[in-house]
Every structure is written in structure tokens, then in C-alpha cells.
Automatic annotation (TrEMBL):
Membrane topology classification: Multi-pass membrane protein
GO cellular component: membrane
Coiled coil region boundaries: none
Broad class of where this protein is predominantly found: membrane
Assigned keywords, A-Z: Membrane, Transmembrane, Transmembrane helix
Protein's cellular compartments: Membrane
Similarity-based family: Belongs to the multi antimicrobial extrusion (MATE) (TC 2.A.66.1) family.
Segments passing through the bilayer: 35-60, 80-101, 108-126, 132-151
Name of the protein in its database record: Polysaccharide biosynthesis protein C-terminal domain-containing protein
Source domain of life: Eukaryota
Source organism of this protein record: Salix viminalis (Common osier)
Length: 179
């Protein structure tokens, strides 16, 4: 799982490393930034599907690696579908997060992440209290992941987003005052 997290975060780091120059550097080229983002999302979607397939195949075919308890194995099998869906969207979401960070759209990231976490917490409480059990909690996580993905994608593809806006005033440097 640590390798998965390292590999997935690589998409965010790639966007943060190469996009700033394309978005607001001397050789500004928003079309190349959009191409880089689409490449990262396509690679992320492919990797996400591979991770989802491998990540769900192991507990499905070899559940005794984790535990010999059949009750736990049955619970594992109940959450494999939401586990697959959550794993498959994660690399693409990290690519979009990295692009937003590269574009310095920090206000949007902070507000959308706070909103998603808050809504996710409410969904978890409702799933727990509603008797949906562990699968309900996993589907709440899936909802959290997909909402983050679509919010970030919508922000990046909007005419006001960092990949389409020709307004350079948001990148003006200001002198800092001494504290």
C-alpha cells in the first residue's frame, strides 16, 4: 500500500513540477499545460484501473493472506466493489490536485477539500447510524473521492480556471512587508 501511495502522489508532484512554468512562466503555454494534464489524467486512469484490479483481486482470490476468520473474509468481500471504485479514481484526483496547486488556486482547493471532508463526515455518520455498516462507509469514501475528482476537473476546465484564463493579474508579485 505504501508503494501505491508513493506512485499516486507522483502524479501530483509531476503536475506541480512542470506546470508552473507552462501556466505563468516566461514561456507561458496553456495548451501545453492542458496536454500535460490530460496525459496525467489518462495515465492516472489507466494506473487506477490496474491498481483497482490488483487491489481487489488479492483479497478476492487470496483472502486467507490477511486472516483465516471467515466472518472477516465475508466483510472484505462486501467492500470490494467500493474499494475498487475508490482505488481507480485516486491517481486521477491526485493529478488534478497537483494541477490546481501548480496554478496556485489554493483558495479553491482549501474550500472544496473542507466541503468534501465535511460532507464525507456527515455521510459516514448517516451510513453508520442508518445501519449500512462497513459497505456504507466505503461508499461514502467513494462519494468523497468522486466529488473531489469532478469538482477539481470542473474548476480546471472552466473558462475562469488556471488552464484557460488569460488573466495574468493574479500572478503579479507584490513586495512583502516586514513583520
Amino acid at each position: 500500500m505504501a508503494c501505491v501511495q508513493y506512485g499516486v502522489n507522483l502524479f501530483s508532484q509531476t503536475a506541480q513540477s512542470f506546470m508552473p512554468e507552462l501556466i505563468y512562466g516566461i514561456n507561458r503555454n496553456l495548451s501545453k499545460a492542458r496536454i500535460l494534464l490530460s496525459s496525467l489524467v489518462i495515465i492516472g486512469a489507466t494506473l487506477g484501473l490496474v491498481l483497482g484490479i490488483v487491489g481487489t483481486s488479492v483479497p478476492w482470490f487470496f483472502p486467507n493472506i490477511f486472516t483465516p476468520d471467515q466472518t472477516v473474509v465475508q466483510e472484505m468481500h462486501k467492500v470490494l466493489i467500493p474499494y475498487f471504485i475508490a482505488l481507480s479514481v485516486s491517481p486521477g484526483t491526485h493529478s488534478l490536485d497537483g494541477a490546481l496547486l501548480a496554478g496556485r488556486d489554493l483558495k479553491f482547493i482549501s474550500l472544496s477539500t473542507f466541503g468534501c471532508f465535511s460532507l464525507g463526515a456527515v455521510l459516514l455518520i448517516l451510513a453508520r447510524n442508518g445501519g449500512y455498516g462497513l459497505p456504507g462507509c466505503w461508499f461514502a469514501l467513494v462519494g468523497f473521492q468522486w466529488v473531489r475528482f469532478f469538482l477539481n476537473l470542473q474548476r480546471l476546465l472552466s473558462p475562469d480556471g488556471v488552464l484557460y484564463s488569460e488573466d495574468m493579474s493574479r500572478y503579479n508579485l507584490e513586495k512583502l512587508k516586514e513583520a
